[in-house]
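Batch manifest line 341
LIGAND: phosphoric acid mono(formamide)ester
JOB: complex structure
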Amino acid sequence: MTALASTTPPSRTVLASAHRPVATRHLTCVHDLAQHEVHGLLALAARIKRDPSAWSTAFRGMALALAFEKPSLRTRASFEVGFQLMGGSVVFMDQRDSPIGQREALSDWARSMERWFDALVVRTMSHGTVEALTAWSSIPVVNALSDLHHPCQAMADLLTLAERFGSPSTPHVAWVGDGNNVCHSLMEAIASVGGRLTVITPSGFAPSADIVRAVQARCMRTGASIRFTHDLEAVAGVNAVYTDTWISMGEADAEPKRAALRPYQVNAGLMAKAAPGAAFMHCLPAHRGEEATDDVIDAPTSVVFDQAENRMHVQCAILLALLRPDLVELPTTFVPGDFVA
Ligand code: CP
Ligand code: NVA
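JOB STATUS: finished
ARTIFACT:
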């Protein structure tokens, strides 16, 4: 992403004459955001959550397209409701009729879409599709989950941690399970805010080495601490335990992977090793009885539905920053009071 512009966004008429985008900002992964922008978006999301009515006309006259190659409940609903509550129109593109880059070249799909819409929200099988769209689209492309990243989820997770602990960097979080797309984005998010994360995965299911390298570079700048282990004893004393499905959408279901992950189930025994009252986190959908047990998901310390709600607030903040920089100046710092839910 280029630096946030402070001018009125160009109209679609102007965009219609553009052949290739030059300075359009996109959100493909959390690391597209500068560290101060992550903080600023969290503070803005908290403001939106406190008083959504203040933004009820922000997207008036604008149209958002959602193009999803995989199923969704939370992501689709939160983008649709959030954008409409702020006065915009949303179209969900049926992938049987209008698939990204299958009925026609991806470049033609993207260059057609930008004539009608102000932003594209995409959920793709391959992260390469998100990147290809950013190369062709003169309107912002927001990654709503790819095989490698889920940045909107991670931003909602930071907001949830901030509400629960006063700041997103205060708690020590443990990721337990598959080193997948949600894990990658959580790593990037916690690295960005200078937080503390222990990633606990079975052997063979660690996060991508390339993403780990980029995350470690950001940790050097922010003072964040991210550690990697296969040892479940590393949940000792953590303030939050986060897990996700063993088999992600689009991935072949494989018994060897399930077998490797079974010991990493988040259950009462595992939660008992964490700090007293530790939060339980899950992006949902959960596979109850697999990666987490009912008692953990339904415990009073579970924040899974706060995470789901916060998707809408952070996504509205992201879209405001991308589409209405004339309305929002992102704060570069935040104070704990920002996050009182
Ligand atoms: N967490 C999440 O992205 O949920 P959906 O797959 O239901 O959108
Ligand atoms: N890792 C999961 C997250 C679902 C929101 C998947 O990609 O299917």
